[in-house]
Amino acid sequence: MDFSKLRMVLDTSENGTQSDLTNLPSNVLEAFIPGYGLISKFILDVFGFDVGIVVSVGLILFAAMTSATYVWNKAFSIFSRFYMSSVFVDDGDDLFDSVLQWIAEQRMSKISRSVKAVTRLGTIYGDKGDESDDEEALDEKGIFNFGKWAAKLPPRYEPYFGRHRFWHNGRLFIFDRSRRERVVNPWSPNRGDEELIELRCIGRSTKPIKSLLKYIKSWSLEKEKAMTVIRRPAGKDRGRSAGSWDRVSSRPSRPMETVSLDPEQKIKIVEDINEYLHPSSPRWYATRGIPYRRGYLFHGPPGTGKTSLSFALAGIFGLDIFCISLLEPTLTESDLNRLFNNLPRRCIVLLEDIDTAGLVRDDKSDKKEKEVEEEEEERNSKGGRKVQELNVNDLARALKSASRKDKQSDDLRQGVSLSGLLNAIDGVATHEGRVLVMTTNHPEKLDEALIRPGRVDMQVEFTLATRDQIRDIFIRMYSSENDKALKKRGKSGVANGASRSGVNDSLRELLGMANDEASNPEGLRKLADEFAELVPAGKFSPAEIQGFLLTRKKEPHRALEQVEQWGDALLEAKEKKAKVVGVQ
């Protein structure tokens, strides 16, 4: 590169004239870009335009913008460090999704030039504003096309990675969404990235941001006030610490009147949980040295409403349901303890089909063990001399084979042991404040240590459908007033400190036991009575009767005509199945 030209431009000539400043960029660019002088001379000769002026102005503007950007970023960084407050929310928290949903509905997200489109197919129960599109998805034959309906559902737009500003209650907030590498730990070796939300505001206090987050949380809860959240243990391949919970889904809270159970028994259960969840109960338990825990065992034939009652209770008291499967092969006792310790202050822990998890009294295995012990004793008494003749190698080989068999049996064992479950339920470091619900089809198989008082405080028996339950199922299926009542009810709570004398009447109204005669037309009640007379009591589960009515959900007279034939066929099938099981 020839730097002599650049030097000549900067020097002053002998006659006192100063060089033209427009030659400065030309000479500089000529030093870095060979041929620039010829190009600029060609443009000047042909078009009569000096390109050096444009280059000079461009360089000045570029330098000014670069300097201004640097100064602004530096000044903003210093200002943020000393005069702004921040609150971070990572993607492992439920508040992360709530913040994104709230931000997506703000004006900032609608006018922002950098947004992220999220496909919003909605839930199976429909989203707000989606009902108007349902009719358009029907073809000329009245067939609902879900693909056509989903194609017309617009996506949700939320701010993309970067910095966004918005106003709330007259205060400026800065929303910064970023991605960073996940911190690796022994429990989560996954090195995937995690998203992070930073909310900032002007001031040295985080109180305005905390108020905003509190408002967003209330907004989210109000939006899902009639929903019950279901959670399950997070997978071990997730990049979060062990013992965390994932939000699986949310469904509309189930009304208590849809559970087929004796009304007085419903009142007894709700009153017991309501008294347990009362704000003054923890101190009452503590002063008497009683662990603040409550356990229930729902037992009965399949399809009688054990799990349904758990969901209905969660809807009444506004609790989340935490489901744990003890048959999970990767679930260890330490994981189970962490899961119980990471429960919120109030929740329902659901252990379904506890009898299938291997935590049972197995009389056959006990008999086999006794028989094996007796055979070994007899063999040892008869062949004592042969045992003495065994050499050291044979003894080592036998011990190695026995240890290999024990290891294989341990590898095939699934879930957790009975002692591990008991330690998680009421151990020294067990979480307090939760409602434990265990369901089983065979309570006689459960170990007595699992269902003793203190671990199971109330046992609720579910039976096959009685005549009153059959009548209620029929009315609930075909009553139009029932649909209106369910829409108005929503999620209600009764743990409000009401006196015990007045809570019974309010519970009757909450459980749908009041004004039953007035809410249903006389014709429907007569059909329900006839239907209950045709179905034998104590033979079918409520789920079986409901499944029969679902195939005729708009034809009560047709259901009345065909119920006898359906019942006879189902009873005959059950008898055949029982004979086959008995022969085996």
Automatic annotation (TrEMBL):
Family matches, as PROSITE patterns: AAA
SMART domains tied to this protein: AAA, BCS1_N
Membrane topology (UniProt): Single-pass membrane protein
BCS1 N-terminal domain ranges (all copies): 59-259
Domain AAA+ ATPase intervals: 292-466
Keyword Mitochondrion listed: yes
A GO cellular component entry from the record: mitochondrial inner membrane
Pfam families according to UniProt: AAA (PF00004), AAA_lid_BCS1 (PF25426), BCS1_N (PF08740)
Region annotation Disordered: where it falls in the sequence: 235-257, 362-387
SUPFAM superfamilies per the UniProt record, alphabetical: P-loop containing nucleoside triphosphate hydrolases
Family: Belongs to the AAA ATPase family. BCS1 subfamily.
Entry protein name: P-loop containing nucleoside triphosphate hydrolase protein
Taxon lineage: Eukaryota, Fungi, Dikarya, Ascomycota, Pezizomycotina
